[in-house]
């Protein structure tokens, strides 16, 4: 049986209740939400409304209508970057951002949007003093990866949000890695925007992302089309969430996300966070004892993601050997975040990334450590 240690990509396995909710949405409801008045369509609409309210409550969002469902965190980030920034705007990003931020900004550079990088430490921690200086003059937007998908480095999001608030600059928080693991409050932190995945720490299925946009911020939609209301008008509706939700939504994924949120609420966010961070610490302790293996530890860990490299072996070869010899699934390479690897000094090969989740057991962590020890011993 595969030892799955790629939860930073997508959590697996999901709680049984998530699979059941997805199956029910497909087999028993089936209809498109917000499109008709018959019973199953009303059930679909009610399911989406309930899930939206759960998301709002979970992230401290006062108005559930400000919660938008997208297809993933990447789309959520693209909506903001391409719908909020204008030619001549200046945007600040951290030195740990994912390509979901870097690539849209690279394209927007041709339209006159200037992106500047806030320096981070060699272990991935944002330099808040540098940010404070860079906020004068005020940029249009600040983008922050809440925790790195490469080494789990947790950023001081509350401090950054406070600095941005005093400067009158909205903060876009990329919580793809932290949603469902770290506490986040859009209201208390006065976030401008929040983007995250439904299929990682929130334990839902793939195919769903979440976007929150504060009601005083004008963001253009990435797409226009059918919304189920005001169909006689050629213009896209102004009201949220319809403004950003054209076309048929992913009802099974919404149902699964709703069940995932219920599981997190029952289990407790603190318990989930402790479990993942304890396993990550246990993994680091074991790996640190293996000669020829280098860890890339963060100053403060935010998730169960651990990155390492083996002297004399390409990360891709290590991942292949772990898969073939021990049936262990890890991620290798740049993890779609070359900017973070530049900061950590792990270009061009990248790292081996093992990421635990709530379903991961201590025995699986120990098995990875012993497998690597045996692999390197055999190589010697």
The secondary-structure class comes to alpha/beta
* Radius of gyration, whole Å: 21 Å
The N- to C-terminal Cα distance equals: 28 Å
- Quickly count the helices: 11
Task: Give the tally of structural domains.
Answer: 2
- Provide the CATH superfamily of the largest domain: Type I PLP-dependent aspartate aminotransferase-like (Major domain)
Order of helices and strands: EHHEHEHEHEHEEEHHEEHEEHEH
Fold-level CATH name of the largest domain: Aspartate Aminotransferase, domain 2
Strand content: 5-15%
CATH class of the largest domain: Alpha Beta
The appropriate CATH architecture of the largest domain is: 3-Layer(aba) Sandwich
Number of strands: 13
Walk me through what this model shows.
This protein is about 40% helix and about 15% strand. The chain is of the alpha/beta class and about 375 residues long. The chain folds into 2 domains: about 5-10 and about 270-380, Aspartate Aminotransferase, domain 1 (Alpha-Beta Complex), CATH 3.90.1150.10; about 15-265, Type I PLP-dependent aspartate aminotransferase-like (Major domain) (Aspartate Aminotransferase, domain 2), CATH 3.40.640.10. Strand 3, helix 4 and strand 4 form a beta-alpha-beta unit. Helix 1 packs antiparallel against helix 7 and helix 2 crosses helix 7 (about 250-265).
What keyword list fits this structure?
Aspartate Aminotransferase, domain 1; Aspartate Aminotransferase, domain 2; 14% strand; single chain; globular; 380 residues; four-stranded antiparallel beta sheet; alpha/beta; seven-stranded mixed beta sheet
């Amino acid at each position: 049986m595969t030892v799955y240690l790629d939860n930073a990509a997508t959590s697996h396995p999901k709680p049984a209740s998530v699979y059941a909710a997805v199956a029910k949405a497909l087999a028993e409801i089936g209809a498109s939400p917000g499109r008709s008045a018959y019973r199953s369509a009303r059930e679909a609409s009610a399911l989406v409304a309930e899930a939206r309210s759960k998301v709002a409550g979970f992230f401290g969002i006062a108005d559930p209508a400000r919660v938008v469902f997208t297809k993933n965190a990447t789309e959520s980030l693209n909506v903001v970057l391409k719908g909020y920034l204008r030619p001549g705007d200046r945007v600040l990003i951290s030195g740990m951002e994912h390509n979901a931020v870097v690539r849209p900004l690279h394209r927007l550079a041709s339209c006159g949007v200037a992106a500047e990088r806030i320096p981070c430490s060699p272990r991935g921690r944002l330099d808040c003093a540098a940010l404070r200086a860079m906020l004068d003059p005020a940029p249009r937007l600040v983008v922050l990866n809440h925790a790195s998908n490469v080494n789990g480095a947790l950023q001081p999001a509350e401090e950054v949000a406070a600095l941005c608030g005093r400067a009158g600059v909205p903060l876009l928080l990329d919580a793809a890695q932290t949603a469902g693991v770290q506490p986040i409050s859009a209201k208390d932190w006065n976030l401008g925007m929040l983007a995250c995945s439904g299929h990682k720490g929130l334990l839902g299925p793939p195919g769903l992302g979440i976007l929150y946009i504060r009601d005083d911020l004008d963001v253009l939609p990435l797409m226009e089309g059918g919304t189920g209301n005001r169909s006689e008008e050629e213009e896209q509706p102004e009201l949220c969430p319809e403004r950003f939700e054209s076309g048929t939504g992913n009802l099974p994924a919404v149902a699964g996300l709703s069940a995932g949120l219920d599981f997190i609420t029952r289990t407790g966010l603190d318990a989930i966070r402790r479990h993942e961070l304890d396993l990550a610490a246990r993994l680091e302790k074991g790996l640190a004892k293996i000669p020829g293996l280098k860890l890339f530890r963060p100053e403060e860990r935010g998730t169960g993601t651990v990155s390492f490299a083996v002297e004399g072996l390409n990360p891709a070869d290590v991942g292949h050997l772990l898969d073939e010899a021990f049936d262990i699934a890890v991620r290798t390479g740049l993890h779609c975040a070359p900017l973070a690897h530049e900061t950590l000094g792990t270009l061009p090969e990248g790292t081996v990334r093992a990421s635990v989740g709530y379903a991961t057991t201590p025995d699986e962590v120990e098995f990875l450590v012993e497998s690597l020890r045996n692999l390197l011993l055999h190589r010697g």
